[in-house]
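Objective 1b: paired records.
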Amino acid sequence: MKDQKKSNFKNNYLLSIGEILSRIPMIFTIGYLAKSVGPEAFGAWSLVLVLQTLLTALGGAGLGTALMRYGPNASKDVAYQYIILSIKKSAVFLAVLSVFVYVFNNNIGTLLNIKGEYQWLLMVSCVMTMGSILDSHLDKYFKARILINKQITYLFIRTFAEVIAVISVFYFMSFSHVSNAIFSYILIVVSIKLIIYPWLILEKKLIKRDKVELKNKDTFLNFSYLLVPSILLAWIIIQTDRIILGWMLSPVELGVYAFSATLASYIVFISYSIMPLFQSLSALYYDKGEFQRLRNLYEIWQYLYISAATILMIILVFLSKEILSLTAGEEYSKLPHILLWLSAGVAVDQLFGQYQLIFNLAEKPKLSTLVNSIKLLSLVGLMPFFVYLYGINGAVLGLMVSVIIVNIVRYKIAIKLIDIRITFFVKMYLTLSIVSIILFSYMHHLNFMLKSSLIIISILSFVIYFIAGQKKLSERNYF
């Protein structure tokens, strides 16, 4: 048991380092891209990404989640057939979807309120989707099978592709129109992935093995397809703000908001980085009936996540304007509070979002659909109302209220399936974090030196508290 715990800790540590190191450059590449194309073009591109993320959701068809659910406990042969099956199915789905986009290109562009000069990028989004679906499948497969070396290699290839594409296109090349530059950027990224990824997936020793048994195959596919309604709702939820703002705000305002939302979305990767094998271990413990280990796993994840998210939020309280200016330029730094509150919303949603994993563990994907339906209804009802009253600030207010409502509902449903309540220890830590962030928010007017000093002091304080708490939690069998 001690050897297994040590191995799991080492694997999580290595993947955490890989996730962090591979994500950091991408923050600056997206900032450099936004700065190069300008707010108006970036706003148009963000609307194109509305379609791209829909294509990724439909083309992926829940297969990535199924890989994470069934991959950890499958035999090596069966798990390998799962990833091959997933790629083949997604390729067929994407081909059909691409034809649809080609036929209705103008209608989709009009619906999303994309200017005519950018509408042809809708077809480019189909190319981008190929790379995104492969990213999702590989990420889930390597984590499910705990293939550490391959996962780390994949992470750095993905980052390498982004960095090379951005530097090549926006630093060395010139184009008659910014949309041509965006197309070239996507083409380079996807080409690098299509050339290198097969070398990570294909295993000669397993290529000639028997295919997945029909029963296993049907279970795998049925589970993934039942997730599609929930995935579609999640897509609508993610894009709702941009669709609404695309009609209610100017292109420049939309571009500024879209970039802040993009930066805020990187908080999602904190949950991946602090414990990359969380979902894999959860599936293992659940299938083995080791529910106490599952509870302990949730507690240590929540503790680690709150620590990391709090430090990041304190930094944003003091330096959100500087971060926006540094990454994308002065044009994007006029509304720093938008970045701060969007980040807060994402942070809260991620903390309680892990309870949705319980629906997958219990093989009840319809509950995911129910929760996402509630979130969508609250978002669609609240955001236009608040945007009408308060403009761009109303979008943030509507988002925050919706996040609070849906996460209360999600938590209540999840703990009825598996009794994994937030412990008193974690509640106290969360309260301390929220109070600290609120107190610091009243000091944002301080000069840069004082801000920096307070950031350092707060980080050191949380590190000390974190070490003390980790020692307490390490006594438990959480791995």
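Objective 1b, second protein:
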Amino acid sequence: MKSSSKLSDLTLTQLTEKKKKLTSLLVGITAGMMVVCGVLFYLIFKTKNYILMPVGMGALITLIPVFTNFTEVNNEIKKRQKQA
């Protein structure tokens, strides 16, 4: 909730810039994470060491805070555009 109050202090231009940065961050991190998880899953199935599978799934959980922040910024931009 604290980030919502901080977002309300930003201008629409600043919010748009923040959205662009978060989009770039999400694309980069997600692409990198998918490559790493792909290699991990390949090695899991090749070595038949299935106990490591939750590690790959758990690694994707690290993206949740970035997605949450991205959604909050999008919601704030939409709210401002409706008011204008």
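Residues 34-78 form one domain. The chain has a mean pLDDT of 88.
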